[in-house]
Amino acid sequence: MTQTLTIPRPDDWHLHLRDGAMLQAVLPETARHFGRAIIMPNLVPPVVTGDQAAAYRDRILAALPGGMAFEPLMTLYLTEDTDPADVAAAHASGLVKAVKLYPAGATTNSASGVRDFDKVRPVLEKMAEIGLPLCTHGEVTDHDIDIFDREAVFIDRVLDPIRRSTPGLRVVMEHITTKNAADYVASQERDLGATITTHHLIINRNHILVGGIKPHYYCLPVAKREEHRLALRAAAVSGDKRYFLGTDSAPHTDPNKESACGCAGCFTATNTISLLAHVFEEEGALDKLAGFASEHGPAFYGLPVSDQTLTLTKSETAVAFPEKIETGDGPVTVFDPGFEVYWRAE
Ligand SMILES: NC(=O)N[C@@H](CC(=O)O)C(=O)O
Ligand SMILES: [Zn+2]
Ligand SMILES: [Zn+2]
């Protein structure tokens, strides 16, 4: 008997679409399965103002193949010069759904991010007042902090102080990778959620380093020890509304990944939904997939759950995903989970 699972059409609450030829190639990979996505603003140059976000939204919609329905939910890239009034106007018009905080130097295209968190206080206060969420890349950048500790230290030194001094500020801890982060979310009563990626439910740091270095498993925050992966799985399948899917699908061309200084990012848009069904089945929690992928995110952002559905079917034979997708900028390798997957999305 074929096993099927029907869920409301999922959304991706953390996605990199890039621009130009790359946007053209990767957008259908997401739009095939997802109805909406929170679009990350770390372009070069970054999407800082409401006008830039409106123009980027238009480029995304122009790149969408005819017949595909997809709603990009735009974000603004927070800089020390961001104008609270511009943020408020972009929110009031319905264009912008979140503001993204990148500590300067923490990740890909974060050079224009925040160095001195006191400088963005007026923006954060305005956001708390109008109910506009802050999405955080939660890692400190101090040279004396080990890369595997940077997320946990960010919570103590940056995030918790910001939240205490800005009551009412709603925060999404993006792409959490540690038990520390999952526990912090669980300990907070209100105004806090977290996205979890597909790949952090599947790989730990051994996958990156054992048996030769695997650049396609390198992303930021870097995958941690197995105990952390297990904590993320427990959070994702818990049914707790504070955790939801943000794939952080982050395309880089193969030459930029397979390099002496490889870029951070895993490209998971193509096979994410099948991989998630596999993971949730492994955890005996297929009934929790709809919450994680389709319901908790809209609840946090105050949006309706999709009235469309996506059906997953478990087949006898493994699904054949492409190893790479071609883009006008060069090939992009699709995330390889290292196991066969039998769940197919219609
Ligand atoms: N996650 C990553 O490793 N890379 C992202 C940036 C980010 O989300 O930190 C990217 O833009 O490539
Ligand atoms: Zn990030
Ligand atoms: Zn990201």
Automatic annotation (TrEMBL):
Annotated residues for binding of Zn(2+) 2: 100, 137, 175
InterPro entries: Amidohydro-rel, DHOdimr, Dihydroorotase_CS, Metal_Hydrolase
Cofactor section: Zn(2+)
Sequence ranges assigned to domain Amidohydrolase-related in this UniProt record: 12-303
Binding site for Zn(2+) 1: 14, 16, 100, 248
Signal peptide feature range: none
Listed GO MF terms: dihydroorotase activity
Keywords linked to the UniProt accession: Hydrolase, Metal-binding, Pyrimidine biosynthesis, Zinc
PROSITE patterns linked: DIHYDROOROTASE_1 (PS00482), DIHYDROOROTASE_2 (PS00483)
Assigned EC number: 3.5.2.3
Modification type N6-carboxylysine: residues: 100
Enzyme kind, highest EC tier: hydrolase
SUPFAM superfamilies: Metallo-dependent hydrolases
Record Pfam families: Amidohydro_1
Record note on cofactor: Binds 2 Zn(2+) ions per subunit.
Family classification: Belongs to the metallo-dependent hydrolases superfamily. DHOase family. Class II DHOase subfamily.
Function: Catalyzes the reversible cyclization of carbamoyl aspartate to dihydroorotate.
Name of the protein in question: Dihydroorotase
Gene that this sequence comes from: pyrC
